[in-house]
Amino acid sequence: MTNIGFGDSGFNFAVYIANKPNMFEYQSLTAVMPLVNGEISAINQSCGNGWRKVFNVYAKVLYALDKKYYDFSTQAPTWQDYRDKVLLQAQHKTALLFSAPQLEPSKDIVHIICGKGHAKALISNGQLNANLVWLNDEFAIDSQKKLIVCPYFDYRQLSNIKIERLANLLKSLKKLKNGTEKL
Predict the structure, then answer these.
(1) Rounded CA separation 152/54 (Å)
(2) Residues 104-163: pLDDT tens digits?
(3) Which of 8, 15, 46, 124 makes the best surface tag, with the fewest CB within 10 Å?
(4) pLDDT over 50 at 181, yes or no
């Protein structure tokens, strides 16, 4: 199986989403394609507010992460600058994937599935084999596979408080890797 989506093909931070922008040029993607400056803005203009929210929340999540474990927020002065000049571009280690997760615990890749519904669909279709522990109705984790299920990347579903919860879960995955914490 091949990863399909936007971002750096050498990613170490992957977000999985059920849909892709409804633009002709993205309908036949067969690999991970890096975005270029201005492309997120073009997608937002063409596809509307929903995609603007996805990109904004993605950048806000990266910016909320503990700098001790993740360096995304050091690459731009604000999350808005990060979104516009760094997010999903080549050599920046992030991906937004439309394909099912390829979980290889030996690799140092963090996986986030947007939405409980998407995660359950992947499981029922046999595209996801994970030992998810549901922490509440919205968040689940498989720490061995470095996988988190969280609310969809939308302001109402993944509010700032929930972004902080996700950031703390991601920090716990890094601490587990380093052997300093047990989940």
Answers:
(1) 8
(2) 867 789 999 999 999 999 999 999 999 999 999 999 999 999 999 999 999 999 999 999
(3) 124
(4) no
- 8 A C-beta contact, residue 139 and residue 150: yes
> Can you give the chain as a three-state secondary structure string?
CCCCEEECCCCCEEEECCCCCCCHHHCCCCCEECECCCHHHHHHHHHCHHHHHHHHHHHHHHHHCCCCCCCHHHCCCCHHHHHHHCCCECCCCEEEECCCCCCCCCCCCEEEEECHHHHHHHHHCCCCCCCCEECCCCCEEECCCCEEEECCCCCCCCCHHHHHHHHHHHHHHHHHHHCCCCC
Q: Which residues contact 152 (CB under 8 A, 6 or more apart)?
A: 17, 114, 115, 118, 158
Question: Rounded distance, CA 134 to CA 155, Å?
Answer: 22
Give the burial string for 60-69 (b: 16+ CB within 10 Å, else e). Answer: bbbbbbeeeb
Pick 1 or 71 by higher pLDDT.
Answer: 71
